[in-house]
Design a protein that fits this description.
Elements: E1 30-45, E2 50-63, E3 71-77, H1 91-99, E4 103-107, H2 116-123, H3 126-152, E5 159-169, H4 171-181, H5 189-197, E6 224-228, E7 245-250, E8 260-265, E9 268-275, H6 277-287, E10 291-296, H7 309-327, E11 332-342, E12 345-355, E13 358-366, E14 373-379, E15 387-392, E16 400-408, E17 413-415, E18 419-421, E19 429-431, E20 438-442, E21 449-453, E22 459-464, E23 469-473, E24 480-487, E25 493-501
Parallel strand pairs: 3-4, 3-5, 5-6, 6-7, 7-10
Antiparallel strand pairs: 1-2, 2-4, 8-9, 11-12, 12-15, 13-14, 13-16, 16-17, 16-18, 19-20, 20-23, 21-22, 21-24, 24-25
Length: 502
């Protein structure tokens, strides 16, 4: 999955927290360490049983000129169905994170040995598929151990090892979810054999003596997880108190299911079943794990890596983790956020499970899915038990993206998932209905004719549309049933709608 490059805005770097760090682009320049070795292991051709040596490396990005003594680390794993892909696929995503003040690494991990007969062997065998998922996840654990040892010894990268966030796209996300939410080799019985065959819970990916990472360091205590088009074999692996989760997934993903189903790879359906982004978010909400889901409506497996969604991910994901990194808790725990059509205008509903030090909600709207502007604000109840909110926005002529900016009293904030609103443009609607004074006819085009008829078909009023919305003054007419007729520029009746006058 490809990620688009973003440019940062030069500002004075902040120390640790504040000044928009971990949320905004505050560093213009980034330094890169390319191809640093973090471990060695072997890849098996299961068709021939031959084993091949694998050298695992990472690319690492840091904000240039940063004087902070400790920074959170994000480790990302590329996608490609455990068959293809390379660590440089996520370089530009890491650059964007470094410009926001994170240290960011994109790592190698073992792929299925590149032989067609081996592909057929692995992707037709559930046990070997779990073996591949476990191999990838323990490679990630070795990378975590590498950075923990560095922090404890040379401190080259100035990392706060209590703030390590891991994740990836597609296969990389599957591996990261496996690494974080599986807490023992027996928690998921289907994977127990795979762990036993790959060195146990921590795995056997390591550096040679005298630089061994095992057993002095372990990978436990991960701070957060990122899943882009990923999934997990069993959502019961996720439990209260475990790391927060940022998710993006296409609702029509044909490879990793948005809800639950078989995974497709190499052109055929595999015996691996996974719970995708929507199920991950539901489980997180149910057990009290902080989470945020960006759904791509109708999107396929690649959609989260395309615009405008990749820009949203790069904006939302760091903003989701920023208050957790800096304070350890979100100002608001959001339970639901939905939008419904109300007389061609977006009616927002949201509920919170808890609110701590919360000030208000800013409702932000975007016409392109990238640039947002505040259109209204709603005061928070600031209740420890949460609250329920609704807000009606005016009629919107264009399709739009809407989100909540949840702001606490010390001006820290986080964002809700983005919701897409589809306007009534092109669909003629009459509202309110019933009506007392003025009826609105929306979805029109300039030059269309609107006629008001009584119940006997007699013409009472005729107006020509000058834009998308036209108003009919109904206060002059008696209570009863009328007909609103719309005629297009070619003289053809396109709609006839009963209108009740109260």
């Amino acid at each position: 999955m490809a990620f688009a490059a973003l440019q940062g805005v030069a500002q004075n770097p902040a120390l640790n927290c504040g000044g928009g760090r971990y949320d905004n682009f505050i560093f213009q320049n980034v330094t890169k360490a390319d191809g640093v070795i973090y471990g060695y292991n072997k890849t098996t051709d299961f068709f021939t049983t031959v084993m091949y040596n694998d050298t695992l490396r990472f690319n690492l990005f840091q904000p240039q000129g940063d004087v902070a003594g400790q920074r959170p680390l994000v480790i990302l794993m590329f996608g490609g169905g455990f068959v293809t892909g390379q660590r440089s696929d996520l370089d530009t995503f890491c650059i964007a994170l470094a410009q926001k003040g994170y240290v960011a690494a994109t790592i190698d991990y073992r792929l299925v040995y590149p032989s067609f007969l081996n592909y057929l062997t692995v992707f037709g065998n559930g046990g070997l598929l779990y073996d591949q998922v476990v191999k990838s996840s323990v490679d990630l654990k070795a990378a975590i151990r590498y950075f923990k040892r560095d922090a404890a010894t040379t401190n080259t990268y100035k990392i706060d090892t209590t703030k390590i966030i891991v994740g990836g796209a597609s296969a990389g996300a599957i591996a990261a979810l496996q690494a974080v939410y599986t807490t023992s080799t027996t928690e998921n019985p289907a994977a127990t054999t795979a762990y036993n065959n790959n060195g146990g819970f921590e795995g056997n990916t390591d550096l040679p003596a005298p630089n061994n990472l095992l057993p002095a360091y372990n990978s436990r205590g991960t701070f957060g997880v990122i899943s882009i088009a990923g999934g997990i074999p069993d959502t019961s692996l996720m439990n209260s108190g475990e790391p927060p989760l940022y998710i993006s997934h296409g609702s029509a993903d044909e490879v990793v299911p948005y809800n639950f189903g078989q995974v497709a790879n190499m052109g055929f359906t595999t015996p691996l079943f996974l719970y995708g982004g929507n199920s991950l978010n539901e489980r997180a909400q149910n057990v009290g794990i902080a989470s945020q889901l960006l759904t791509v409506p109708g999107g396929n497996h690649e959609s989260p890596g395309t615009e405008p969604y990749i820009s949203q991910i790069i904006q939302q994901m760091p903003a989701f983790f920023a208050p957790l990194v800096c304070r350890g808790s979100l100002p608001v725990t959001l339970s639901t956020f939905t939008i419904q059509l109300n007389n061609c205008a977006p009616l927002l509903h949201w509920k919170t499970a808890s609110e701590a030090n919360s000030s208000h909600f800013a409702i932000e709207l975007s016409n392109d899915g990238t640039t947002y502007n505040t259109v209204s604000m709603v005061k928070s109840n600031n209740s420890v038990t949460g609250g329920s909110y609704s807000y009606q926005l005016p009629y919107q002529n264009n399709n739009a993206w809407l989100r909540l900016k949840m702001i606490d009293k010390d001006e820290k904030y986080t964002y809700s998932p983005v919701q897409r609103f589809t306007s009534c443009k092109g669909v003629v609607r009459t509202w309110p209905n019933p009506v007392r004074q003025t009826a609105n006819i929306s979805g029109l085009q300039k030059g269309m004719v609107v006629k008001l008829l009584n119940n006997q078909g007699i013409l009472l009023l005729q107006q020509t549309a000058l834009g998308n919305v036209l108003q009919l003054p109904m206060q002059r007419y008696a209570s009863g049933i009328y007909m609103v007729q719309v005629i297009n520029q070619q003289g053809r009746v396109t709609s006839t709608t009963p209108l009740v006058k109260q």
